[in-house]
Amino acid sequence: RSSWLLLAPLLTPPVPVITAPPCPLCPEGAHRFQWIRNLVPEFGISSSHVKVLSSPAEFYELLKVQIKAAKQRVVMASLYLGTGLLEQELVDCLEETLEKSLQAKGSPDLRVSILLDYTRGSRGRKNSRTMLLPLLQRFPEKVRVSLFHTPNLRGLLRLLIPERFNETIGLQHIKVYLFDDNVILSGANLSDLYFTNRQDRYVLLQDSPEIADFFTELVDAIGDVSLQLQRDNTVQMREGMVHPYQGDKVAYCEIANRRVMEVINSARTRQELLHAKTFHSSHEGSSLLSEQGSQASGGPKPEPDTWIYPLIQMKPFGIQIDEMVTETLLTEAERDARIYLTTGYFNLTQAYMDLILGTRAEYRILLASPEVNGFFGAKGVAGAIPAAYVYIERQFYSEVCYLQQQERVQLQEYSRAGWTFHAKGLWLYLAGSDLPCLTLIGSPNFGYRSVHRDLEAQVAIVTESKALQQQLHQEQEQLYLCSGVVSTSTFEQPNRYVKLWVKLVTPLIKNFF
Q1: Which of 121, 140, 198, 251 is the most buried (most CB within 10 A)?
Q2: CB of 316 within 8 A of CB of 172?
């Protein structure tokens, strides 16, 4: 076999679009997105528990505050942990909190679980692993560090592809940070750029034990099929677990699928039972369940006006829930609905492009200008990646113009001096509404990698609360405020010149970045 075939794009059948009958338990007037719970658990919460953050500094300060306040658990999933002073401060906060837990009277039961990507977390002599080793050595019974290694990087391919480039094959890309019952969903990694001048999105779900339990179980499940960092900086699999790149690939992927789907399905069953009990009890006038809940929490819980749906995408394991839900949302968006979609790396799948160009809703797509692309100024081949994104953007814009869709589908470029852009997600405004009722927030970029190669997770937040809708609207406006509308003249600027070799290579490699 010739070596270029090793990097051939993966061919997959189209994803079925979900249509669902209305739930017989749903009260009249309930939101129109409850079909999502046919696939994943639905968590009903009060909008007062949701806080949208706007800046990297706010995100970083919140991480430190939450770590210091944690009593039972700290669970963090990220692509990697950086090696600078700000990251060291986070590790110091973890050490301080663990130390405090050991000295506390009563049961010192704080547990720390960290999930990172193996290839990205092992890059360089000083890396995520060396940053976390002191914690592991000091608190071996309290700290778990799991390093996910894609099963697609194996054999000759693993031997031949150098460091950095091996990350193109597949990664652990989920970003979730939880502390006791508080959960932060984001697209940001644990690195100084994401704490200072790389713009992302962040949402805090406060006092949400069921959601925190779900993401704890999800990270545990991925951790169970990942390499475990040891105190001497070696790694090994848990006893009895198939190895991701030395063992049988099919067997490994089947075990991983089963483990993750167990988490999703058991949470879904739990939430359905809770929903059914709550529905029936509200019609019977009194409820043992609500009485118990009131006693436990010190008062009656407010009626949920916001629903959280975790959307998981792990194509290597045959799990494509996020893809199915996203495609359905794009398909079902009605005429005069508006979808604001943003990605730091504009490289949409063909299916997403076809839906955007072939459906009725208005689209405002926010993407990075070359100067705020995370690869801008990078050394070597990586330095050409912003130009490749310009080429992909220009091709899409040409298609929009060819179909005479410029009014309905608008591209906007984020530009901000001294900053890079990493925000991803979407906001859905129903026809006739000035506020969004749904947002997607998490790790996926809507590109080939997100759909086919990496482990991804985001949440759909659906809300009837005007206050939360206003928060989400302000978040969207603040991001789009730093942008300019793309036109034909955009691509005539000198900084948009794309070299011939980049144009020739981009179609061959676009599925890897």
Answers
A1: 121
A2: no
